[in-house]
Amino acid sequence: MTRAETRSLLIDVGTRVIGSQGFNTTGLNTVLQTAGVPKGSFYYYFASKEDFGLAIIDETATEYAIVIDGYLSDEKFSPLARINNYLQAGLVRIRDGQCKRGCLIGTLGQELSTQNETFRARLDAVFEGWKQQFSRCLNEAQLVGELPADTNVMEMAEFLLSGWQGAILRAKMHQSITPLEAFISLIFKHVLTNGQSKTAA
Predict the structure, then answer these.
(1) Pick from 62, 55, 51, 53: which is nearest to 22 by CA?
(2) Within a 10 A sphere around the Cβ of 186, how many other Cβ atoms?
(3) Which of 1, 49, 161, 172 is 20 to 30 A off residue 154, Cα-Cα?
(4) What is the pLDDT of residue 2?
(5) Residue 101 has pLDDT above 80, yes or no
(6) How does pLDDT run across 49-97, given as a tens digit for each residue?
């Protein structure tokens, strides 16, 4: 296994273990044993557990930004339909995971944002990047008449991102996709509308 492959394996295993157990309660030995990598090799790639956590955040953020872009830049659909497709896909993913795993970035944000300023700043930057992706799609919706011309797309993007993250948390707590279904239904009936036509959720 090459050095790049070993580093990638550690990040992949760390993502799965931390996503399931949380950052603070995950010991490095658990990650190393699962990956089959000796401790000495770990410190060749990462200076500390915090450095490891930041690498996981960066990798997750990069991969998920590509996923978001795949939906929000799909010109086969109108801008609001793209957002609907993204949300529906997220609902399916969480349903298939039995509502036990949500967004790793959101999970880490809840756990670490008040404990570690480095993590808080990095996680906030990830969310800001995702918000920009939503705002671009919402701006397109505005340009084609799916949203009113006076819509504040940045506020709308913040509301969409924050509301969806909250619905994911609620789904995990409730062990049901009902909060996700309610969010999608209400946002397209009452928020993402030009006042005349509605995008089906």
Answers:
(1) 53
(2) 14
(3) 172
(4) 81
(5) no
(6) 999 999 999 999 999 999 999 999 999 999 999 999 999 999 999 998 8
Question: C-alpha 145: how far from its chain's center?
Answer: 28
> 4 or 15, which is more confident?
15
Q: Which residue has the tokens 């993402």?
A: 192
Distance between CA atoms of 32 and 28, rounded to whole angstroms? Answer: 6
Q: What is the per-residue pLDDT for 196?
A: 54
**Does the pLDDT at position 198 exceed 50?**
no
CA–CA separation, 33 vs 49, rounded Å? 15
| Cα–Cα distance measured from residue 170 to residue 179, given in angstroms and rounded to the nearest whole number | 6
Distance from CA of residue 28 to its chain's centroid?
24
DSSP string, the chain: --HHHHHHHHHHHHHHHHHHH-STT--HHHHHHHHT--HHHHHHH-SSHHHHHHHHHHHHHHHHHHHHHHHHT-TTS-HHHHHHHHHHHHHHHHHHTTTS---HHHHHHHHHTTT-HHHHHHHHHHHHHHHHHHHHHHHHHHHTTSS-TT--HHHHHHHHHHHHHHHHHHHHHHTSSHHHHHHHHHIIIIIS--SS-----
Question: What Å distances lie between residue 144 and 77, 78, 137, 185, CA to CA?
Answer: 12, 9, 11, 22
Q: What Cα–Cα distance (Å) separates residue 157 from each residue in 130, 136, 149, 162, 181?
A: 9, 9, 15, 8, 19
